[in-house]
UniProtKB/TrEMBL annotation:
InterPro entries: 6-blade_b-propeller_TolB-like, Vgb
Gene3D superfamilies: 2.40.10.500, TolB, C-terminal domain
Region (Disordered): 331-350
Coiled-coil spans in chain: none
Name of this chain's protein: NHL repeat-containing protein
PANTHER family, alphabetized: VIRGINIAMYCIN B LYASE
Length: 350
């Protein structure tokens, strides 16, 4: 018997993790309540090998004193959403400063993209033991390039792929970027897989996933108002194949930070902004989740936008119960992680 699955999305507006029916998109409520145990800027989401939900927490606006506070990795029970403790405490000297995407390897090593250490300084890809949270070290930086990692995924070849932007605190750093590769077992730097500084459409890459077709899909942001935000598609050798524009020039803007393949080979794309995330008024599509057919580049609206009463305002990263925590691929035959008795602090029939 096919068991039901759920979609979990972090909402940076009210600092929750919200749950949806994976087939219909029906909103099922807040799986992690607002600000639970310091949740303040939820980013990467995965289920670990014990079935716990791991959430990277940026601590974007910490309480007084106003000094910058490290981020953390929070752990929640997969069945109830109850807080299980810190996997990585913000007081740990090796805690990430601004964590984004995460993956957990089969060897139980958690890879965390830490976009920036301090203003103007390169970030890190940090590694931790997936059960104890003990720091395992930082991956070496690629030679001769800026290194502000945003997200991670383990590819079909077993290598760790990291999306890297240029310095986000500078004007010129808003353009370009790259994807680099590592051996996840040894931490060895392999190569620059995609050098985006030479690709006009490749700007501030973040969410990256491999599709069922074996191609790599990456979010990219517009150069200027005459451009569009989009998803770029590359083959297994790093060659640019195609793109999916999220809107046409002249239409209201819509951009996505993270993407994920789900049931029936569809690509799920939460529209993060414009809105609170970049200090702009809500766009007409912000807060929606689109479900794309990547062959036809068409989509249906899986979750309606905030301005039409949808429950999300600033959706970031997402995971299904059946998402592989390493490759982020959708596992059709996985049953146990999605067979949860969900408890929510509210319910909705939306």
């Amino acid at each position: 018997m096919k068991r039901h699955d759920y979609l979990y999305i972090g909402d940076g507006f009210d600092n929750t993790v919200k749950t949806f029916d994976a087939e219909s998109g029906r909103f099922l409520g807040r799986f992690v309540p607002s600000g639970d145990n310091g949740l303040n800027g939820p980013r990467g989401l995965i289920f670990d090998h014990n079935g716990n939900l791991l959430v990277t927490n940026q601590n974007v606006l910490p309480p007084p004193p106003p000094a910058p506070q490290n981020g953390s990795i929070l752990k929640y029970d997969a069945h109830t959403g109850q807080f299980q403790g810190y996997l990585v405490n913000p007081n740990d000297p090796n805690a990430p400063f601004a964590p984004r995407g995460i993956v957990l390897s089969k060897q139980n090593i958690l890879f965390v993209a830490d976009i920036i250490v301090e203003t103007g300084l390169n970030g890190e890809v940090r590694t931790y033991h997936g059960t104890t949270g003990v720091f395992q070290g930082n991956l070496e930086h690629p030679p001769g390039v800026q290194f502000f990692p945003r997200s991670v995924v383990i590819g079909p070849d077993g290598l760790l792929y990291v999306s890297v932007s240029n310095n986000p605190t500078t004007a010129e750093g808003q353009l370009g970027g790259r994807v680099v590769r590592y051996n996840p077992k040894t931490g060895e730097f392999i190569d620059v897989f995609i050098e985006g500084d030479s690709i006009p459409d490749f700007n501030r890459p973040e969410g990256l996933v491999f599709g069922p077709d074996g191609n790599l899909y990456i979010t990219s942001f517009r150069r200027d108002p005459s451009d569009t935000d989009k998803i770029l598609i590359f083959d297994r050798k790093g060659r640019f194949l195609d793109k999916i524009d999220l809107y046409a020039v002249g239409q209201p803007r819509a951009f996505a930070q993270a993407i994920l393949f789900g049931p029936n080979g569809k690509l799920f794309v939460p529209i993060t902004g414009p809105g609170p995330v970049n200090g702009q008024p809500l766009g007409p599509d912000t807060g929606s989740v689109r479900r794309y057919n990547v062959k036809s580049k068409t989509f249906d609206v899986f979750v309606r936008p905030a301005l039409l009463g949808g429950p999300l305002t600033e959706p970031w990263y997402l995971t299904f119960g059946k998402t592989d925590p390493a490759t982020l691929a959708y596992r059709h035959d996985k049953e146990e992680s999605s067979d949860h008795d969900h408890h929510h602090d509210d319910e909705s029939s939306d």
